[in-house]
């Protein structure tokens, strides 16, 4: 697949700016300019994308490489509970599992973050005190994103005030699909400002964007607006995270860094349940974007059941046999 267009051709007359995104100074000045840039990105060969992920997914990872991959994947998990029935007790239980995923094996790494609704961020923050585990909170009228901007920004500020280190926002897919790209851009910029020091993950809800071309455009729009991560899905819409979608997003962050010098993370979420799924994603990350992204700082898995399978596979490597389902907790 081709790399991104040289943005200098679109902004030759832009005044010099010291920011890394100076090449895009003209791109976000009007809806027409944003649309022209996004639709000027190279198209995605869907057949080629599916063929490439099929080849990468067939790689055989064994022994020490598999042990490394399992521990790396565990360290990248955003352990998540996003249900209407969530309680402070459930969040505290999840935080305990995040701190020590396998109580019988202290060498098991902790996860990257605990992801909850914003009103429970303070509970998670207190339960994770003294650790490096982040508190991630969904916001901006998650999962639909159907609310006024004022309500969305209040949602973000409330979660940050509760102790959230990271905010997972949802874009307005209706606006994006209707071609109102500047509205989506402006909202991400406003949410980023409301985050303060908290990192911003921008959820594209790729299952509703339908095409890989739309995924590429939404990825670039989110990065131009200042997102620290781009995330596939809320986990509430099917299909959620798929390997072709992740491929396109990894290409986008790779090309974005090449042009701007700024690195952006990627978080696939929804439908990643097995160790085999996680390893396929790690292979893809390494082959497409490179080892710089093989860190919880730049790649996460949004998951709940995935951690249990990783723990069972880790136990198998350590002891030579599979443990029963009672080896892990049911979250």
Report the total helices. Answer: 13
Instruction: Give me the strand/helix succession.
Output: HHHEHEHEHEHHEHHEHEHEH
Rounded average pLDDT: 91
Strand order of the largest sheet: 7-6-5-4-3-2-1-8
Main sheet record = 8 strands, parallel
State the separation between the terminal residues, measured CA to CA: 40 Å
Categorize the overall geometry.
Answer: globular
Please identify the top-level CATH class: Alpha Beta
Total discrete domains: 1
Structural class: alpha/beta
Give me the CATH architecture, please: Alpha-Beta Barrel
How many E strands?
8
CATH superfamily: Aldolase class I
Q: Looking at CATH, which topology would you report?
A: TIM Barrel
Radius of gyration: 20 Å
Low-confidence parts lasting 5 or more residues at pLDDT below 50?
A: 1-20
Strand fraction: 5-15%
Into which percent range does the helicity of residues fall?
A: 40-55%
What's the SSE blueprint?
Layout: H1 31-39, H2 46-57, H3 63-75, E1 77-80, H4 88-99, E2 113-117, H5 121-127, E3 134-138, H6 149-161, E4 166-170, H7 173-177, H8 181-195, E5 199-203, H9 206-209, H10 212-224, E6 229-231, H11 243-260, E7 265-267, H12 275-288, E8 301-303, H13 305-319
Parallel strand pairs: 1-2, 1-8, 2-3, 3-4, 4-5, 5-6, 6-7
Helix pairs in contact: 2-11, 3-12, 3-13, 6-8, 10-11, 11-12
């Amino acid at each position: 697949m081709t790399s991104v267009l040289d943005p200098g051709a679109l902004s030759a007359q832009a005044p010099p700016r010291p920011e890394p995104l100076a090449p895009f100074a003209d791109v976000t000045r009007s809806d027409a300019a944003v649309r022209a840039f996004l639709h000027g990105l190279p198209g995605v060969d869907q057949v080629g994308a599916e063929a490439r992920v099929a080849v990468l997914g067939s790689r055989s990872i064994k022994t020490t490489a598999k042990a490394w991959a399992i521990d790396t994947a565990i360290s990248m998990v955003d352990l998540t509970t996003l249900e209407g029935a969530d309680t402070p007790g459930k969040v505290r239980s999840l935080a305990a599992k995040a701190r020590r995923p396998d109580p019988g094996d202290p060498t098991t790494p902790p996860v990257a973050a605990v992801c909850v609704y914003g009103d429970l961020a303070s509970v998670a923050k207190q339960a994770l005190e003294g650790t490096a585990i982040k508190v991630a909170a969904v916001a901006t009228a998650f999962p639909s994103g159907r609310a006024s901007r004022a309500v969305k920004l209040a949602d973000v500020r409330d979660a940050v005030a509760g102790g959230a280190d990271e905010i997972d926002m949802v874009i307005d897919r209706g606006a994006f699909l209707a071609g109102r790209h500047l509205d989506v851009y402006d909202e991400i910029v406003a949410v980023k400002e409301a985050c303060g020091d908290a990192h911003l993950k921008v959820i594209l809800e790729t299952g509703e964007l339908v095409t890989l071309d739309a995924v590429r455009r939404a990825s670039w729009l989110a990065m131009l607006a200042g997102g620290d991560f781009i995330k596939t899905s809320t986990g509430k819409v099917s299909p959620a995270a798929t390997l072709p979608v992740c491929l396109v997003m990894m290409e986008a962050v790779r090309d974005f860094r090449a042009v701007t010098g700024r690195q952006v993370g990627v978080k696939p979420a929804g439908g990643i349940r097995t160790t085999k799924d996680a390893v396929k994603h790690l292979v893809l990350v390494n082959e497409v974007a490179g080892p710089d992204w093989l860190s919880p700082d730049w790649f996460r898995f949004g998951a709940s059941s995935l951690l249990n399978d990783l723990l069972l596979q880790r136990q198998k490597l350590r002891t030579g046999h599979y443990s029963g389902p009672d080896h892990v907790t049911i979250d």
